[in-house]
Design goal:
mainly beta; 104 residues; six-stranded antiparallel barrel; 1 helix; globular
Amino acid sequence: MIRARIGETADPVERRRASRLPVELDARVRELGTEGVEARVLNISETGFMAESDGHFEVGARIWLMLPGRGRCNAVVKWIAGDKLGAEFADAISLEGLRTAASA
């Protein structure tokens, strides 16, 4: 007999709902009502992304992620660690085309 126990991990960052696609994409991130800053998206999924940027954001801030050739995506900052931030999209996005852009 096989027994399994499902439990939450202690680290909420590890409890992802969607697998991340590792990328290196130049983008812009801006908080609502600001001009925005350059950012490099390091990984992305249908539900969120991680990026590095010189911008200063607060956990809970509503931001726009603007990727080249795509519309802007509304997200909420979930964590900050140095020059990195993690955010969750307000609405799931399609990763169609990003795989091609990431490998180019």
